[in-house]
């Protein structure tokens, strides 16, 4: 004990050294006594010491002790008796200590259930923590404690977490589902409900984990996937790589139950040698559907298309899973695209190669053509591991055909001489297989193999003989030459196994070599005594067979050999000799058996079959563990056969549900209306479902603008989907705003391009326009501009209707549209404008979608309280800062500036309105100014219409909408003219993504209290002392951060608020954002924005 | 999915274990040890094994086995890929992945494993995310932590975990903004004894080291992207841009990473930088053989070939070698029968030559196995495929970064077949050649 305490002391004082050594079992290097301690101490003693440390008051000692404990766990040593001491520290403030305690708890809770319960309350508290990270890790640990008694608590926690605002917590809850299920399978039904809910989640973070949970808990509930199928397909590229693997394999199974086989008609594309596998089922199906040509389900196509880019993933598991998906689902002529990627994987780690080669081996049996061009990639290298070599050989053999056999054989020649004898033996077998499969080379192979009999290595010889034997048996006609040849070689062959085999062959086919066989027997008689046992046995066999077929010549020889054998030292040989003698030499005793001697000894032996070891692997899904082991592994899910008739396709349609219905059951929950979004993955779907879409939009009276847009957009599936969501929840007040500002822009554009004079309102846009021209890039705040912009609100209201129609008609002129719907929905917008805007601009997200009768329903929701207290002070607050988008030098005369009008965007609620002023400072007119490619490609931009012509010195203001996806990441796109393309980017400040709102201080603090899991964005503003009046600060903050002032009783605290109108990717309700500004001592004011993080962090 | 993980060293000691679900006894590893015993070489252990109740999937890296225990069906590549990712992470954190390093940092490794998997399903594998949660050890930090009591464990959710760019954290700041790209190409080739290319391809990789402030959006374009046959990308690269424009558009991770791997196949005629003239022969009579190797430049595009090294695995029967090299040094390892000739720089005026005699065991049969000859080389400032980066553009940030591209060509698996001549006087050799000719005739 004394030594021990010194050890502790050392560690404690050792400073840096001790920290570096942390985790090692305290082996101080400085004193010999310490070393001795390390040597003689027992676990028990050490644990005593640890206990003391854990119970001390010093944080550092505790941490040190925990590190050692974890070290013990890692080494697999038992430290369970420390449980009481450790569990006390679960509530520690030190995050590292806490984590280590968690690690310990998860490991030992199962063994010490009663004590483990002590920690539960800590986790329950942590589950309510505002920090999402703490919430998530609490749930992780809680669910990892395998104590049956807490199942109800876990269930509750999972349900709550599944509705959490943070996608990370939701992801954790998906993981917890599996844990709870394995702890108590009786909870299955409830868990399925949670899974169903989480499947609707649109976060890429959650998708992989929930599908994993689905696979574990209820893989047979394929019906849960229907509604989420298209979403999963579309999200796939953005899901993290591990999730991709799970989703892809699940979707493979799904697709096999839902779509009809694409292989029926595809048979024309197939190669000749392709008929083995699917022949049978495609045939039977042909009968049923002969009349109808096969048309691939658009959803089927969607899956194939969306998985294809993943072939380029760096994660080999992802590539493999896409490959197997194509193998099992794609039309035959499309499967080839996976080849290259699979071959690429062969460059990866040895273990990866092993698995990939196994899969290629299975594939190459059915479809040689796929891998034939890459044959050389399967050439064996001397540095390969044996199992890799064998697999490559297998594949090469599968690929062999008349055209390439000579190349392959030449390659094999090298392998036969390999130092790795097991591999050389495998090569010989491969040569044998090639010989049977390709008749042209049979003789060459046979000759080659015969030569190998002279090899000094037993394995090689034995293998050659076996293969020759097999070959001769399969082609029993023209091989007397070879047997003769072998007889010639016989004298030179020393390996007993080979000699024995040749003797067997002689005997078996003695009738074909009537002259040689007796001669060989003669030689053998001479050397019999010197031969190995195995050779002697075969000599006896040969003698017997010859005696039966050619007794005249060999009778004496046989008798001689039998006599020799009779007195052999080996009893096996004596035994055999006696038996043979009884069998072949007729005498009184042997009787009946003698008659059958010939039939016994010279019975035709069945030819051994030479075929691939991977022949039957195709019963398993490629890429699975079962396939790799060729045994059905536990939990393997069979891939079903294609259905003869496709099940109802419409189950995957996600129709727009009546808002009322959707709202009712969701009262009081934080996450809403996940399923009411409909999304159309791509054009194909779009066209197909156009009818239903239009009717749907009419029913739900969703706002017009975004709905129409979806028709014209093809690429941005995922953003489109979110657009839909927001369009459903579009809001009335902002709706009118949008239309006003938008129609304004449209008007201007028309004026410039069509030269059609229109009534022009001097509005915000105009204001800022002149600002820029006059003041250059930076326009600082002025209160006057705020006024003018507020004017725009009232001004535009009347016009918006008519303008909108005109604008939209123009917009839609090129794209096919449904004029009727358009007009109708237009009216609704204006209607709602009048309804909602003037009296109480409630900002409930639903209000524009929901008819007025519904508003009363909404009143009952907890949410609507939020919205009633918050008033979005929508009109922009004037101070507009202009940024340069494109300098006229780089733009070859075209210059562009932009600013944020801080008005809701008309096009889609999730977009931020941006006004761009394009000026032509060159001396020639520019044509066809439009927006080109954008990056990231998923970036959702509402482009302005192409400007046909911009005269020198002229400028035009256009407005566009950009969906920044709630992040401050720059939107990059190309500004194109007829000749040139310029890459430009717009990066919004946080404030530009917000909408300011006003509220009372009371409400403010109430809302602030509701905010969970915050994210902070901070910025610093420097102001002159003179400006420290609250008004001035208010203005300043407004100009920078776009937030509204909350009147405050405290003099030195200024609060600001804004509504996250555009942040409704995930959740329909408008979330309150609150900002607070604190006045500090000096001139600096830190602005803290705290906000709920809906989707992404900035 | 992954139930447990055991780390096993080359002597068969389990020195770390981690269980993500309930504990599985170490005895499960016995099945593995059995297979290990059978395989002789550690490389030959089958990666996937079946035991009565579990499945074992293992990888062998840095003389360590990472053995994972699986209970139900799971794509084996999923596990293998993950295990490699664990090894990568350890390497990334501590500079190497070896037993010593893991033992020294056992707590950190354990915490890492805890974060990387949740209930056997990968949770955080991006090194950037992990580093925010568990900071890699540095000497300075250890000192600071001991003095201030600060910890190595982060208490906030790493920003990457939530964003669409999990590989990059926000708020990166550098005073020197720089982006370097190394285009490294490896030639994989098999040449036959006459110097004809049996098989050749180029495997390329672009390693990047990007230290840029903020959220830069980079676009890397090539002069000749059509050259690339097959590519795989870091997740940051946008597939669609590549498909439509053949440019690499990405928001880079912070620090070192592999941007892309590519493949240039033999159709594009791979240039072989060197040729080898060799003859190894043995006499049937007398315990000796002869060896003569000369190396010369072939297609080097005017660059110097450096780091030239020849490795020959000799037949087992060769006892010793008595050779003279005109350039460089040679060693012959008696135990492994490996002859290594380290040449260095290749001088085209005076070709390096290695010549001399080999002694074989007297009385034993002449060697039959073919030795294999592997070549290692380096060519600086050359991408042998001819791939060229044309430009790097940065969007999203205002400053001007310092940019650099470096090219390097290496020999990958560069192998030359050798046919030894054994002068035999008997019928066998005659027949052997007869067969060779026969086969060759068929091939023509």
Automatic annotation (TrEMBL), chain A:
- Could you say which residues form the signal peptide? none
Primary localisation category: membrane
Q: Which InterPro entries match?
A: AP3_beta, AP3B1/2_C, AP3B_C, AP_beta, ARM-like, ARM-type_fold, Clathrin/coatomer_adapt-like_N
Keyword S-adenosyl-L-methionine on this protein?
no
Q: Which UniProt keywords apply?
A: Cytoplasmic vesicle, Golgi apparatus, Membrane, Phosphoprotein, Protein transport, Transport
- List where in the cell it is found: Cytoplasmic vesicle, Clathrin-coated vesicle membrane; Golgi apparatus
Specify residue ranges for compositional bias: Acidic residues: 682-692, 706-720
- Which Gene Ontology cellular component annotation is one that this UniProt entry carries? Golgi apparatus
Stretches with biased composition (Basic residues): 748-762
SUPFAM superfamilies assigned: ARM repeat
- The superkingdom listed in its UniProt entry is Eukaryota
Q: Mind telling me which Pfam families this protein's record contains?
A: Adaptin_N (PF01602), AP3B1_C (PF14796), AP3B1_C_2 (PF24080)
Q: Residues annotated as region Disordered? A: 671-826
Q: Which GO terms describe its biological process?
A: intracellular protein transport; vesicle-mediated transport
Q: Where is the composition biased (Basic and acidic residues)?
A: 814-826
- Biased-composition ranges, Low complexity, are 693-705, 727-738, 781-793
Specify the AP-3 complex subunit beta C-terminal domain's residue ranges: 824-969
Q: How does it sit in the membrane?
A: Peripheral membrane protein
Member of which family? Belongs to the adaptor complexes large subunit family.
What role is this protein assigned?
A: Subunit of non-clathrin- and clathrin-associated adaptor protein complex 3 (AP-3) that plays a role in protein sorting in the late-Golgi/trans-Golgi network (TGN) and/or endosomes. The AP complexes mediate both the recruitment of clathrin to membranes and the recognition of sorting signals within the cytosolic tails of transmembrane cargo molecules. AP-3 appears to be involved in the sorting of a subset of transmembrane proteins targeted to lysosomes and lysosome-related organelles.
Q: What is this protein called?
A: AP-3 complex subunit beta
Q: What is the lineage of its organism?
A: Eukaryota, Metazoa, Chordata, Craniata, Vertebrata
TrEMBL record, chain B:
List localization entries. Golgi apparatus; Cytoplasmic vesicle membrane
Top-level taxonomic group: Eukaryota
Q: Which GO terms describe its biological process?
A: intracellular protein transport; vesicle-mediated transport
- CDD domains the UniProt entry points to: AP3_Mu_N
Segments crossing the lipid bilayer: 416-436
Q: Where is the MHD domain?
A: 176-417
Keywords associated with the record: Cytoplasmic vesicle, Golgi apparatus, Membrane, Protein transport, Transmembrane, Transmembrane helix, Transport
Instruction: Return any one Pfam family short name.
Output: Clat_adaptor_s
User: What family does the entry list?
Assistant: Belongs to the adaptor complexes medium subunit family.
Q: What is this protein called?
A: AP-3 complex subunit mu-1
| Protein species of origin | Sparus aurata
Gene (UniProt): AP3M1
